[in-house]
Amino acid sequence: LWYWVGRPLYVWKFGERDAPFYRPPGTLSENRAVKYGSIGAYSLVVILLSIFIIAAATSGGPTQLELGEEVSTEKFAASVTEIETTDRIVESGLGEEEREVSPGATFVLVKFEITNIGDSQGEVPANKIISNEVNMEYNDETLDPIETDHFSAEGVSYESYQTVSEENSNTIFPGTTISGWFVFQIAEGFDREDAVVRIEIGPETQVYEWRLT
Q: Is 39 left (phi over 0), alpha (psi -120 to 50) or beta?
């Protein structure tokens, strides 16, 4: 751009006696405006390239958050607030149904809360395996939440996020908050230090990761 546009404009404006336009900018020139204009143009190009490289290196990855930390977009405020573990859950949908983990595994329960802070209704993340909007990264493995109804564990009742979001057609209106629990089945000996929950939020699929420590 500088060679074909910038330098010719400098030469036309300030002049450079007997200067062929194909000469590399800033070389063999007695014209200070052309010479220093070339240096300035090269510096500007370097600065812009540096900005693009830094932006490319830092963009595209999920935003990292801690357990309990809230994130806000133009439409939503959301957070992962609690985590529990258990070896069996009792679902309370169409009659109680007890579910136990496979031998050598455990259930990890993660509570998610989201509020519409915008001025129009918005679609919330769906707890559906096919949607891939919610998952957990644990020991370099991606795990999907299992589908559950409202359930209890060790005598404590839990609201399933899947059920709560489906009751609202996965859409909430301004000023509305919903919360519920995701359920993951993970190998026994679960260490929350090695786990993050990844959730896509908003129409532009912004991705956030909550560490479970």
A: alpha
Instruction: Give which of 146, 157, 136 is closest to 183, Cα–Cα.
Output: 146
pLDDT recorded at residue 68: 95
Place of tokens 């644990």: 138
3-class SS at 177?
strand
- What per-residue confidence (pLDDT) applies to 79? 96
Would you tell me how many other CB atoms lie within 10 Å of the CB of residue 20?
A: 8
Q: What is the dihedral of CA 84, 88, 91, 92, to 10 degrees?
A: -90
Q: Cα–Cα distances in Å, from 99 out to 33, 85, 165, 185? A: 79, 14, 22, 11
pTM of the entire predicted model: 0.70
